[in-house]
Design goal:
The complex is a heterotrimer.
Chain A (H helix, E strand, L loop, with lengths): L1 H4 L6 E6 L3 H10 L8 E6 L7 H9 L4 E6 L10 H18 L7 E5 L5 H18 L13
Parallel strand pairs in A: 1-2, 1-3, 3-4
Helix pairs in contact in A: 2-5
Chain B lengths: L3 H14 L5 E7 L6 E6 L2 H4 L15 H5 L6 E5 L1 H12 L8 E6 L5 E2 L2 E2 L1 H4 L11 E3 L2 H4 L8 H7 L3 H12 L7 H5 L25 H14 L9 H5 L7 H15 L21
Parallel strand pairs in B: 1-3, 3-4, 4-7
Antiparallel strand pairs in B: 1-2, 5-6
Chain C lengths: L1 E4 H4 L7 E8 L2 E6 L24 E10 L2 E6 L7 E6 L1 H15 L5 H9 E6 L25 E6 L2 E6 L2 H8 L4 E2 L6 H12 L16 H5 L3 H6 L7 H5 L6 E7 L3 E8 L19 H19 L11 H5 L6 H8 L5
Parallel strand pairs in C: 2-6, 6-7, 7-8
Antiparallel strand pairs in C: 1-9, 1-10, 2-3, 4-5, 4-12, 8-9, 11-12
Classes of the chains: A alpha/beta, B alpha/beta, C alpha+beta.
Chain lengths: 146, 279, 335
């Protein structure tokens, strides 16, 4: 019993692009597909709107994992935004890894508006991976601990 | 025969006296043997203090953002690494090319109080990507063998926790003086996010180790694809933090993933291929 | 005067927190002593010792949301007794300057608490620690530092002399051999002689004071002096006497943490008001720093300069502009 009460539930922040992934999350909801309640979705106009500070601030304020979801390559509402996001995040994630931050805590996934099932699958899988890593200590801010 | 340094100074004076340029940006002697201070010369009398020798480490290119807004042309004495930084500023339209006369000055490596500067140990090359005229010789064109990514590779070999402890220990020395940012020729925003009280991240001291990481990740990433690896951030740091490691890691990765870049060319981060690998 | 082996001093750490110059990641700074710490008594610390009494960042209070109620909780006033060992004469003098700012009304609660909890064991220098040292210019004797106790290290032996009641109490905790006060006179004379030869020891402060405020302020030299200044805060943050701070709020998600942190007059957002920074150019900000140290502070504090000649700003400035250049340009015969 004790184990269940103290079970670690990772807090996931998901930056979802307005045009595809946010609609995909909607579809997952209306299709009654389940994904962890601790995934907090933040809607952004495009995956390339996500700047490194968004990710760092999410970690600072208690996130254990951050995922960025956008339209599939080639399907960006703004034609090329997700291509830029892909390069930027590749370089950023490598820098974070270089500084010793667990690589598995950050991820980019492409989820279209029609892929409610994929959204649920991705979130379940990501939450599982982050749960295995445990609490985010390296990029947390002690002042934000409850 | 005149040395490169003598020729550089003579030529700067010649251009000033002929009226070709209105002012000269160079260095002057400081209090100690190894100190050279960036200086702007606007009169013949001042110009007598112009110095160019093996201690002229400070990168002058960023000064030209302000100087190219003045009336008349400014002559700037730039080493090859400084010229690379200026090339970036030209590409980003921060400096008006017409207002600057670039006198390229050959360099055999600059020294500070503790000998050869770190940035010079792994010199990137002796070519001037932009110049009006360049003065150098055989000796100045020799590039040292140092591998600028050696330290990055060494850290990559460490375990994740070792890397974390290494950077936490280095970054914990940070006093948030902003010298690395202010000296960086690629950091040329009119107002930095860290100086903007409305940004939510501005702070004058790191109240938690997180803020050290945040500042340095964002500082390094903001110049990703634009950093010319001039090494001024590490030289300027009063606490001896090897800040260039973060920049070089990014340069190395961009090189491996997207074929590298030379500042002044198109940054790979404002470009893409449909075939790029996933993050 | 008490003589004992240096290692014995570190036994204080069993009873009280002990701070000393410790080398970490290549940089020597005051840090908490723990067994195995790399104590470095040959190098001037990168930062000054002021952070022990006036930390770079410290919490003042927390506004905590509890349901719909807001509770205000003042931060605990620090009362942990500690010993600060290895403070040099320059930094030791800086405490007297900071005391004037923080203790002469209105009294700063946190600073006062730390001052009374701390025992300063100042360490005499065997000579200048860096070529940029110039403490004698401000009448500081590197061989006889101010503090609760004076210390000297000679051939691995530590010599201690109590100067205050706090210092006496500390010395009672240590057992050593009583030696004659004159035992170190030769070493002290040698240290002073070496210091007199240091390049900046001849700086001339004539004409730099509160009485020449306007001449100094209007001096044309500021333009050239400040030209290369980057506007970073390296000089102010390593300075033992810079005491400006900012008060800020941090949103923790469940409340607000109000803290203060060092500020720098070199920054564009220093004393920011609705209309902006009252000093709009770097020249004005640069001038402010040195006017404060060499004119405004002495004008309000019986002629005492707010500089102790530690030379850190001289060594740390990435552009090599510093107070020594200012004194050379404006001091002596110039005004």
């Amino acid at each position: 019993m004790q184990g269940e009460v103290n079970e670690f539930k990772p807090l996931i922040v998901a930056f979802c692009c307005n045009w595809c992934s946010y609609a995909g999350a909607d579809l997952a909801g209306s299709s009654r597909l389940s994904y962890p309640a601790d995934v907090k979705i933040i809607r952004v106009p495009c995956s390339c709107r996500v700047n490194p500070l968004f990710i760092l601030r999410a970690f600072q304020r208690g996130a254990d994992g951050v995922i960025i979801c956008g339209c599939h390559p080639g399907d960006c509402h703004y034609t090329t935004g997700n291509y830029y996001a892909r390069r930027r995040m590749t370089v950023l994630f490598r820098l974070l890894e270089f500084m010793g931050i667990d690589r598995q805590r950050v991820r980019v996934e492409w989820v279209s508006a029609a892929e409610g099932a994929k959204f649920a699958l991705v979130m379940n899988e990501f939450a599982g991976a982050v749960k295995a890593l445990g609490e985010n200590v390296k990029l947390g801010d002690l002042r934000c601990k409850p | 025969m005149q040395t490169v340094a003598e020729r550089v100074i003579a030529r700067a004076k010649e251009l000033f006296f002929s009226g070709e340029v209105r002012r000269v940006l160079g260095w002057e002697r400081g209090e100690f043997q190894h100190e050279r201070i960036p200086a702007l010369y606007e009169t013949a009398e001042q110009l007598e203090k112009l110095v160019y020798d093996e201690y002229c480490g400070p990168n002058l290119s960023k000064e030209l953002i302000a100087l190219s807004k003045l009336e008349g042309r400014t002559l700037a004495i730039l080493k090859p690494c400084d010229a690379r930084s200026l090339n970036l500023l030209l590409r980003e339209y921060r400096v008006d090319r017409e207002k600057v006369y670039i006198l390229g000055a050959g360099c055999t490596g600059m020294r500070g109080r503790d000998g050869l500067l770190l940035k010079c140990e792994t010199c990137r090359g002796k070519d001037f990507p932009v110049f009006d005229e360049a003065i150098d010789d055989e000796e100045c064109r020799k590039v040292p063998d140092g591998d600028r990514f050696a330290d990055v590779c060494r850290i990559e070999q460490m375990s994740g926790d070792e890397r974390f402890l290494f950077f936490r220990s280095e970054l914990s020395k940070c006093i948030r003086c902003n010298a690395c940012r202010n000296i960086c020729p690629a950091c040329s925003c009119n107002q930095c996010v860290f100086d903007n009280p409305d940004s939510g991240v501005s702070s004058k001291a790191s109240a938690d180790p997180f803020e050290d990481s945040q500042f340095h990740i964002v500082r390094a990433f903001h110049v990703a694809g634009r950093c010319t690896d001039c090494g001024e951030c590490s030289r300027a740091c009063p606490q001896g933090i090897p800040l260039h490691l973060l920049n070089r890691k990014i340069i190395k990765d961009i090189g491996e993933l997207y074929g590298g870049y030379e500042a002044g060319g198109r940054s790979p981060l404002i470009d893409y291929r449909a075939s790029d690998g996933e993050a | 005067m008490l003589k004992l082996h240096l290692d014995r001093l570190f036994r204080i750490a069993e009873r009280r927190k002990l701070f000393a110059p410790i080398r970490r990641a290549g940089v020597v700074d005051f840090g908490l002593w723990e067994p195995g710490a790399d104590v470095d008594l040959e190098t001037l610390t990168s930062r000054s010792a002021k952070g022990l009494f006036f930390p770079q960042s410290e919490d003042l209070m927390v506004f905590q949301m509890r349901g719909k109620a807001i509770e205000v909780e003042p931060a605990a006033v620090p009362d942990d007794m500690f010993v600060l060992f290895g403070v040099r004469a320059c930094d030791a003098r800086s405490f007297a300057i900071l005391d004037r700012v923080f203790l002469e009304g209105p009294v700063d609660t946190w600073y006062q608490a730390r001052r009374s909890a701390g025992t300063v064991v100042a360490l005499g220098c065997p000579g200048p620690l860096a070529e940029s040292c110039f403490c004698p210019v401000f009448g500081i004797d590197l061989a006889e530092p101010e503090g609760d106790a004076r210390a000297w290290v000679l051939d691995g032996e530590l010599y201690l002399k109590a100067m205050t009641e706090k210092g006496e109490a500390l010395l009672k905790e240590l057992d050593g051999e009583e030696v004659d006060d004159n035992a170190l006179d030769a070493a002290k004379a040698d240290a002073r002689a070496k210091m007199a030869q240091n390049p900046l020891a001849d700086l001339d402060l004539t004409g730099l004071d509160g009485d020449h405020m306007m001449e100094m302020f209007n001096a044309p030299e500021w333009k050239a002096l400040s030209k290369a200044c980057l506007g970073c805060g390296a000089c102010t943050y390593v300075c033992p006497t810079c005491q400006c701070y900012d008060i800020r709020d941090f949103d923790t998600g469940s409340g607000i943490q109000r803290f203060r942190c060092w500020d720098s007059c070199m920054f564009s957002d220093f004393t920011l008001m609705a209309h902006g920074n009252p000093r709009r150019t770097q020249l004005e900000r640069f001038r402010q720093r040195f006017m404060h140290k060499l004119s405004y502070f002495p004008a309000n504090n019986d002629g005492i300069y707010a500089c102790v000649g530690c030379g850190r700003c001289v060594g740390k400035c990435p552009m090599h502009v510093n107070i020594a250049k200012v004194i050379r340009a404006l001091g002596g015969k110039h005004i």
